[in-house]
Every structure is written in structure tokens, then in C-alpha cells.
Design brief:
There is one protein chain. Helices cover 35% and strands 22% of the residues. It is globular and about 70 Å long. The protein has 14 helices and 23 strands.
């Protein structure tokens, strides 16, 4: 089934999956996670109400109760899964994907992620095997579960006086809209802060340059100190500086070190994914903390942070994880912490771009996709080519390869769902970066269709 992915269940609604599949997903979930109650939230997409009805029918036909959070952000579901001791939860969302898409993000006890290898594959197997779907003698019930006030009270722990900071916030017509004004008040200039699952202004993916144009323009127009943009389900947040220039999300891990390490004195390692800039580790290590590099995606990052009892961490794609948030990701915590750091820096005469310039020490290629079918063979050829020319200082072999040399490094990793190899490269200078990129493209050329 095309909708079952490594980390979640998602795809084009009505094409990659239908409501019958969603119903069966709901039916098999309680037995899979051994529970008689399931917490369910949903985003504002046009198909989300239909999906909720199908999912809830499946869950209740299995004899379990549905605790209905209604319209919510994905991190809210994570929080209440752990805080209120649910052994199963589902967020109906396609996150940052186009409006035609939707999906299901599943968590278990302590808000631990459920991926294909930890449960979703078993649900797919049961559906494909056409296991019997027989409504229980005692049908479960749907319980309204409005806990927004409690969540806002929790978020207030991270609130600081930001009155010296001029901000623009783009909610992408997504789920951040239900929280931002109660957290930040009327101080920021808001863009697209009404819920609309058709995304009439731009798609809810801040990593695509065309989706941050309105934010960049408004920051420049209002001479704001910083611009903030959330994705569709508000589990990711990204920023532009006072010049309207996009800030690579992984660099914000270093910025948060000023709060968690210097201000709060948190102990423990800081986690990053395998694509994260080397600048981040160098910056954090100067604060006396060690970085832990791990695989891409919440299904791996949240588990690793819990395993090592890390203080906090983040990813190249704008997810940030917190010990104080059951080791899960929260865009609202991240935004409050990061804005606090920039507010404090402004008091010292340091602008957003100036602080980022202190962090960033490498020229970065950004993530580049190569259409390649023989992904493993191509990765081995790349590894052999560059390691024959220069001795690596460090090599990691999970999520493809991350191979570091004296003045440059690269990560090359296969897409789980598409015929792509994804490359990210950094070097001390732009000239060296271009030289190594040209060499990389020459090696990969033989493998491209």
C-alpha cells in the first residue's frame, strides 16, 4: 500500500489510500498497541473530518474509546499522549505536504513514535491479509477532550519578555494559528493566521523558497528583527533574519545552546541528525557539551534523545526535540526559546544575522537530490572515490554515509520512498565546496538515468 511509509501513514487522499483503509487502520490499532482508549487529533485539511469519522468508527468498532481533541497541533497530541498516560494516539495530518494529501502519525506510551518497523507494517499486513473486521459486542464511545487551556499553561513555562523584539509570524493557514496569539499576544505582525486547509496563500512547507517569500517581504517592509514560519501541523518552525534571509534550521540548535546550556545549565548531550552542519557541533562544544549524531526523522531522533537522556536537539528540517517535552518535538517551545535568545542578544547589540554569522563557519550546499535507481552502488562508488583521495577524519554509516575530512564533509543518503540519492556537503570555503561538488557530480553521473 502506497501510504505506509517508514515513519507514518500518508499520501494523496483518495489515491494512495481511501476511507475504508483508514477505518481498518483504526480497527486494528487498539489490539496492536494493547489499549482500550486512543487519543485522536486532527489538522484543518479538507479531508480531515472524513478521516476522523472513518478512523473513529474503526477504533470504536474494535471496542476502544476515542478521546477526541478536535483541531490540534501534532505536538499537542504528543504532549497529552505522555502527560495523560495514553498508550496510543493518532494525529490526522499530512504536515507540510500539499492540500490533496493527508495521513496518520501514530504514537504509543510516553509519546514514543510508531513507525513501519514498530507497528505500521503489522497494520498493513493485517489489511492486506484481509483479516476479519467484526464490530465488538460493546462498541466504544467518542469522548470530547478539550485540553487546550492545560497546554497553554504548560507552554507558559517557556515564555519570556520579548517586548524589545519586532517579529513577523507566518502560520501558513495551519494549526499554529490556534496557539500563537495566546502565546505571543498582539506583538508580532501575523500572516495567514486563519485555518484553511486549501492553503490559499502558499503551501505549508517552509523549506521551499517560494513559501517564505511573503514572510521575507513583510520582514523587510516592517524592518522587523526576525521572521518566524510554522509548517502545517506546527511541529516544525523556521526563521528569516532581519534582512529577510533564510536561516538554515540546523543552525538553530546552536542558538538554543545559549538558553539550555549557558542560561539553564542543562547537562547531557545535544542531538543532531546526520545532515546537520559541522558548525553546530563546533559551537556547542565550545559551551562544554558533546553532540550525538543520529538518523533523520522523529521515529529515530525522539528515541535516541530518550536513550541518552539528552538535553535537547534538532534536525536539518526544522524539528527540535526537548527533554522537557517527553523527548519529542515542539515548534512552540523551539520558537519561544530561540526568540528569547535573540531578544537577549539584541540587548547586547547583536542582531539575528550577526549571531548566525558567529555560528556558521562552513559553506553549505543545501540538500541536493540525484535521480538514481542503483542507490547503494552509487553510494559505495562515492565512498571509494573520495576515501582513496584523502583519509577521512570521521565516518558514519547509518542513513547512508557521512564522511568527514579535514576541511570538508558530505552526507549521501537514499530516500526511503523515491528513486533519489540525497546529498549535503559543507566546506571551509565556497571555492572548495564548488570543487568537491563538481567532483561528486562527476562520480554520480555514471549512475543517473
Amino acid at each position: 500500500m502506497g501510504a505506509f511509509k517508514a515513519y507514518d501513514f500518508r499520501g494523496t487522499f483518495g489515491k494512495d489510500f481511501d476511507l475504508d483503509t483508514v477505518y481498518k487502520f483504526g480497527y486494528f490499532l487498539p489490539s496492536l498497541l494493547k489499549t482500550n482508549k486512543v487519543l485522536v487529533g486532527r489538522d484543518m485539511r479538507v479531508s480531515s473530518p472524513q478521516m476522523f469519522e472513518a478512523l473513529a468508527n474503526g477504533i470504536t468498532d474494535a471496542g476502544a474509546d476515542v478521546y477526541d481533541m478536535g483541531l490540534t497541533t501534532t505536538p499537542m497530541v504528543y504532549y497529552f499522549t505522555a502527560q495523560h498516560h495514553f498508550d496510543a494516539s493518532v494525529m490526522i495530518t499530512a504536515s507540510h505536504n500539499p492540500k490533496e494529501h493527508n495521513g496518520l502519525k501514530v504514537s504509543r506510551t510516553n509519546a514514543l513514535p510508531v513507525g513501519y518497523d514498530t507497528g505500521l507494517g503489522e497494520i498493513e499486513r493485517r489489511i492486506l491479509a484481509k483479516e476479519p473486521v467484526t464490530p465488538a459486542a460493546s462498541k466504544g464511545k467518542i469522548v470530547p477532550y478539550d485540553v487546550k487551556a492545560e497546554y497553554l499553561e504548560f507552554q507558559s513555562k517557556f515564555h519570556h519578555d520579548l517586548s524589545n523584539l519586532s517579529m513577523v509570524m507566518d502560520c501558513c493557514n495551519g494549526m499554529a494559528s490556534i496557539l500563537v496569539k495566546e502565546i505571543y499576544g498582539e506583538q508580532p505582525t501575523y500572516l495567514f493566521d486563519t485555518l484553511d486547509g486549501t492553503f490559499p496563500n502558499h503551501e505549508a512547507n517552509p523549506l521551499e523558497p517560494e513559501n517564505i517569500v511573503a514572510l521575507q517581504q513583510k520582514v523587510r517592509e516592517t524592518k522587523a528583527d526576525i521572521g518566524v514560519i510554522f509548517d502545517g501541523d506546527a511541529d516544525r518552525v523556521m526563521f528569516v533574519d532581519e534582512n529577510g534571509d533564510f536561516i538554515a534550521p540546523d543552525l538553530m540548535i546552536a542558538v538554543m545552546g545559549h538558553y539550555f546550556i549557558e542560561e539553564k545549565g542543562y547537562q547531557g548531550k545535544v542531538i543532531q541528525d546526520i545532515r546537520t552542519s559541522k558548525s553546530v557541533a563546533e559551537y556547542i562544544e565550545k559551551m562544554g557539551r558533546e553532540m550525538e549524531i543520529w538518523r533523520v526523522g522523529r521515529a529515530y531522533a525522539a528515541l535516541k534523545l530518550r536513550e541518552i537522556d539528552g538535553a535537547f536537539g534538532g534536525e536539518f528540517a526544522g524539528h527540535y526535540y526537548f527533554r522537557d517535552f517527553f523527548y519529542s518535538d515542539s515548534a512552540m517551545i523551539a520558537s519561544q526559546v530561540i526568540l528569547h535568545v535573540f531578544s537577549e542578544m539584541k540587548k547586547k547589540g547583536t542582531s539575528v544575522s550577526q549571531l548566525i554569522k558567529q555560528v556558521k563557519q562552513y559553506a553549505n550546499s543545501g540538500e541536493i537530490n540525484f535521480t538514481i535507481q542503483e542507490k547503494q552502488a552509487a553510494m559505495e562508488a562515492v565512498k571509494a572515490h573520495f576515501c582513496a583521495l584523502e583519509k577521512p577524519t570521521k565516518m558514519m554509516d547509518f542513513d547512508g554515509y557521512r564522511i568527514e575530512f579535514q576541511d570538508w564533509w558530505f552526507n549521501i543518503r537514499p530516500s526511503n520512498t523515491e528513486p533519489y540519492l540525497r546529498l549535503l556537503m559543507e566546506a571551509r570555503t565556497e571555492a572548495l565546496l564548488q570543487e568537491k561538488l563538481d567532483a561528486m557530480k562527476a562520480v554520480l553521473k555514471d549512475f543517473q538515468a
